[in-house]
Amino acid sequence: MVSQKEYKDIHQKCLSYFEKAGIVLTQNEVEDLEVTDFGLDRVQEMGLQLVVYVNTERCCAKELVLLPRQTCPEHTHPPVGDSEGKEETFRCRQGTVYLYVPGSKTDEPKALPPADKKQYYTVWNEIVLKPGEQYTISPNTPHWFQGGEEGAVVSEFSTKSTDENDVFTDPEITRTNENEA
Amino acid sequence: MVSQKEYKDIHQKCLSYFEKAGIVLTQNEVEDLEVTDFGLDRVQEMGLQLVVYVNTERCCAKELVLLPRQTCPEHTHPPVGDSEGKEETFRCRQGTVYLYVPGSKTDEPKALPPADKKQYYTVWNEIVLKPGEQYTISPNTPHWFQGGEEGAVVSEFSTKSTDENDVFTDPEITRTNENEA
């Protein structure tokens, strides 16, 4: 769980990232900024910050913030009901994102997950995204990502987002939003 | 048709708008920036500039630029095949956008279409979008919009975009991309 003190500190950092990226948010969006630690209680290492712009039955857009070297753990968006699962495009706006997807293992990857969690990271084809660069992830495709040394701001364009259906490789992970400070 | 000279001039303006908004584009995106005059040959009055980030079978994201007082003419996104039609969210990033949708007619609207085209503008419920503000348009809903005095940069998040299926109220309009300078 993210403590109130931690939430406030991370919230403030996110606002400065958004300001630097020229991204303007409404007061409601600022207040609703989500900080998740995926239930792992190590938010600086494994966590994600999100502002959801829109999420309808058909499409979704968010801004994501990654703190320096913060990892969003490996997961997939599996088929749900009639839907083949979430498709998402990550577009880097600021900083650097190291994204890992299925494919040839990259030699000397630029990001590593926390050592004690390495067994839960199974895809190692590295995609490096700098500002203006983007990558589209097909449904039901395992992926994980990490911010570079200066963190990152990433726009996500996708089909409907239903976090509760995400499947994480690490069995310890629960994706609940328990951090409303 | 947009002349090469006009295309170059507008292209340059768009790049300065994007720079001011902190939006970074790849070289390919810069080169592919689309300027459309909707076949009306009056691009400064009625036209739109677009960068398409992604457009898959399921979702689409674009950046739009409106020049000062430039109007995107009234149109709808009707059902196509099995799809109920395009749903789109406009999020203002910079400047002001005056958006018109069905509903009570706004007294003294802040934007007016060119006088000789007024009969092709049938919805007059005004939505004003400033940076950080957004509005979602349901499928098959007539709408039109105009940039404010200083123009505007607008992010569009939507379902699949198929310009050729758009239905414009003005019968003179053809939505072709004939402006590759």
Automatic annotation (TrEMBL), chains A, B:
InterPro entries: D-lyxose_isomer, RmlC-like_jellyroll, RmlC_Cupin_sf. The keyword Signal does not apply. The keyword Disulfide bond does not apply. Its cofactor is Mn(2+). Keywords: Carbohydrate metabolism, Isomerase, Manganese, Metal-binding. It catalyses: D-lyxose = D-xylulose. It comes from the Bacteria. It holds the Pfam family Lyx_isomer. Residues 157-181 are annotated as: Disordered. Its EC number is 5.3.1.15. Residues 172-181 have a biased composition (Basic and acidic residues). Belongs to the D-lyxose ketol-isomerase family. This is D-lyxose ketol-isomerase.
